Amino acid sequence: MGPSVLFIHPDLGIGGAERLVVDAALALKSRGCQVQVWTAHYDVNHCFSETLDSGIPIRCCGDWLPRSIFGRFLALCAYIRMLFLAFYIVFLSGEHFDVVFCDQISACIPIFKLTRNRKRVLFYCHFPDQLLTPRISLVKKIYRAPIDWLEEMTTGMADCILVNSHFTAQIFKETFTSLYHIKPDVLYPSLNVSNFQSCAAFDGLAGLVPTKRKIVFLSINRYERKKNLKLALESLSTLRDKVGLQDWEKIHLVLAGGYDDRVRENVEYYQELNKLAIKYDITNHVSFLRSFSDKQKLNLLHNCTCILYTPSNEHFGIVPVEAMYMYCPVIAVNSGGPLESVVDNVTGFLCAPTHEAFSDAMEKFVKNPTLRTTMGKSGHGRVMEKFSSEAFSNQLYHYICKLVEWK
How many CB atoms neighbour CB 398 within 10 A? Predict the structure, then answer.
């Protein structure tokens, strides 16, 4: 029997961070580890399917605590929820474990480190939390100052720190200046290939995309402003002016994204994007899809022409890797994680975050339909070489075992 690992995560919904936590838990379980996941929020109707049938215990505690105070203080509330969750695990749950796998919020690490039976902690840094929100006012700067200090101080208390890309490693170094002596290791998120082999047949896009639309661009991202989904709409509008009417009638865009009614930004941004589509007069060429299933995602990736990945400075971005595994080329912004996953002019195109650059790349797929096949094959090969679940599992298991040996 392998080491016992407890995962602690703020909200086990649907997103890149949650995807990694689930994949990490499954990887360690496959290596013989005893695994359990604790979270402040878990909804069986808004989660990855593996959490329902993998046999990994999911424990939820502290969801009664507020997520915000009158729509504000989201970070403070998230920290309080995680601190409460950690206190409950250590002092009230009666659970026994060797290693804690913590991500996103490091504030809970001292609770595991300063108790009588100190625990080894592995912290996975998707991206420094303090960089995820702008300092738009003096009040915001004052409010964030102690939270930012706490993040840096508690991150440094972890026994092992991993990051999701070399890009994030550099940002880590530039942000947490007091942790200059720490060099985090890079552990790329992987693809659980079995999830992408579950569909023996694909249904096509009938009901979502008009039958005559044979060139389908797809965006998969949460309905959040930082994901810059409006770039996809602007690029589609610009593309219309570059192609003839005959080609334009073949083109469609699907905006598929994680959506949660509890999150005000999701609701507001979804409405903004719909208004933007009306403004550009492209509503007949756009379909919006919210909180789709795993099967729907596979079907979309199988049938679309190309993925549009619009966030800038994305920490890693698992969607381009998923797309490439499904033989789907990627058009992504030329910054952040995609610089390490997408090979420009080979598995897709890396572009400046402008509608002109994106529409130029999109036009290439309109004018040369064979690109989908050639770039798709190259992308699949790259995923199998660089982002396999076996490599991820071996590396993560090595870190866990190393922590246990230190005890």
Answer: 13
